[in-house]
Specification:
438 residues; alpha+beta; 6-stranded antiparallel beta sheet; 21 strands; globular
Amino acid sequence: MAHIRPFTAIHYSKAKHGSDLSKLIAPPYDVLDQSQKDALQSKDPHNIVAIDLPHMPPKSVGPDSAYAKSNTILQSWLSAGILERDKRLGIYPYAQTYTHGGKTYHRRGFFAAVQLSPFGQGQVVPHEKTYEGAIADRLKLTQATSVQVSPVFGLFSDPANEINNLLYKNLGRPDFTATMDNVQNDLWAVREAEIENAVIDLMKARPVYIADGHHRYTTALQYQADAIRLTGGKLPADHPANFCLFALVPMQDSGLLILPTHRLIGGLSHFDLETFRDAIAGNFDIEPTNVDESQLDQFTRGSDGKESHLFGLFDGKTRKSYLLRLKNLDVLQRYEPTKSESWRRLDVAILQRYLLDEVLQPRFGGGNEITKGYTADPSTIAGSVDGKKYQIALLLKPTPLSALEELGKTNEVMPQKSTYFFPKLATGMILNPLYPVA
């Protein structure tokens, strides 16, 4: 089960910046482009993006000099007191307050260092695939700075809310707060040994499921392996390279919101609905809807959640929308016979392995690879699906959190872009150094 420990964090100096870090934090590096990076640095040249995103585009490998520059910036900020490192170990409660669909949510969790274990061999459970380019980029940054700049987002089961009740009891005003994209981020530090030990003991009985940050976790595993090779043997149990920075949130937290990631499809040759209907007739029923293109979020809700395996299709040419109802629950049996039934019943797996791989690509691809885009915001679909880059959109309902636990039992991972946990974690609230306190 999960082994966590407190750590001595690096964070922005309150003496230099005050408690409001709004101009200093950033979204995760992999969602930014050059103009967005420039905009963040124009607000404050000390924005964390200067360290976290040394090379463009994100998830591609840059020259060594780019990562060396990140370290130069990091060290200069530490020397100048722009950043500082805590002298005492702590666990750091972290809360996000946001509004979605007219409702306000409060998501509560905490930052801690989680002991690494290879996927499928320990207490940390993945649910999505990773790709080498993104890992190589993050590894170079970690090697250059010896710091984990952004956290992995982890989930754990806590039906009685024992851990958050311990951590958030008697907390006063946050040590730091920051607002970004209408999300308020609040950070505290808990340094009471009694509370820390109680949280550590409670987490020992609970696996951690990665919600977001698979590449960051895989990077930490590779950094650990490199450290082992350099020392010529096993690392001491308390070596920082054996741990990874996590933001941990209970699965049952009322502020935890998971959104579907809809697919935008282009590069289709001679697509028309009737041919598509005939191609999937043995497995799906299709019916038109009266949903206006400005109200495509209705597919996400899908009969108030009472109907499963319901998909939406928006045709950019006709500007009409349709419901796709699965009638053959075993549609993936012939294509993925070695996968578990839980995996084959995932909507996102059915969409990827059947609708995309077995129907749209071979029948409408025209011999070329079809174009795929992704969005978690249904309000952007109609504008994107205009017959130019994208011709149709396939819409999903959210993947249930229970699927992470079920697939964890069989060590299976979902297709790419299966989940979107909203909102994203902020980068820059806290950093995890991989070297002892001086």
